[in-house]
Amino acid sequence: MPPRSDESGHLSTVVNHCYEDWQHIDMARHIVLVLLTAASAVLLTPAAASAHSLQFVSMRPADGGTITAPDAEVVVTYTGPFDMRDLEVRMPSGTIERPEVRFAGATASFTVPPVPSPGRITLVWHVPNSDGHVVRYQRVLVAADSAVDPHARDVRAAVAAMLGALRSARSFGQ
């Protein structure tokens, strides 16, 4: 028996409502999927970030700073206790010194070895993170003339005087 005209209108309305409900369910499914993806990204991010959770905080004097006195103290701070390995202090003269490092919680300190001449001092060290990955750090300090070891200053002055005397003697003999 064919549907009556009012039943056919009712049937199409029911079908339309079902279709609209299905679209809402499909949209709700997409929203849930997006929310789950965002939540898992948020939850997984700290785990990835914590793999390298130990972070450099500061150095005193700051990178690029000037030391103005012999036996200057350098203090390095991280976000937690750390192991500073293979510390090298590369002097302006090119020599490499390896001072003793003292640790106290999240800080390490060392005394800059006697500086033979003013100029750039490069500090290089390595710090292992909790995952075993070793990170290399490099910072620069500048040694002012006042930071030069007094004995080195005396030696430099004596060498300069000897060179001056040799030049004078050579010019006198000619």
What does this structure look like?
- By secondary structure, the protein is an alpha+beta fold.
- It has helices at residues 5-49, 150-172; strands spanning 56-60, 66-67, 73-78, 85-90, 96-97, 102-104, 107-111, 119-128, 134-143.
- It is built from two helices and nine strands; from the N terminus they run H-E-E-E-E-E-E-E-E-E-H.
- Residues 42-51 have low confidence and may be disordered.
- It has two domains: 5-50; 53-155, Sandwich (Immunoglobulin-like), CATH 2.60.40.1220.
- A hairpin with a 5-residue loop joins strand 8 (119-128) and strand 9 (134-143).
- A five-stranded mixed sheet has the order 2-9-8-4-5, with no helix packed on it. Strands 1-3-7-6 form a four-stranded antiparallel sheet, with no helix packed on it.
- The N and C termini lie far apart (136 Å).
Beta content comes to: 25-35%
Going by CATH, the architecture of the largest domain would be Sandwich
Q: Structural class, from secondary structure content?
A: alpha+beta
Strand order of the largest sheet: 2-9-8-4-5
Q: What is the multimeric organization of the chains shown?
A: single chain
Reading the helices and strands in chain order gives: HEEEEEEEEEH
Instruction: Please work out how many helical segments DSSP would assign.
Output: 2
Uncertain stretches of 5 or more adjacent residues = 42-51
The dominant shape is elongated
CATH top level label of the largest domain: Mainly Beta
The radius of gyration computed from the alpha-carbon positions, rounded to a whole number of angstroms, is 36 Å
Q: N- to C-terminal separation?
A: 136 Å
Mean pLDDT: 79
Helix content: 25-40%
**CATH structural fold name of the largest domain:** Immunoglobulin-like
Secondary structure tally: strands: 9
Tell me the major beta sheet: 5 strands, mixed
Number of domains: 2
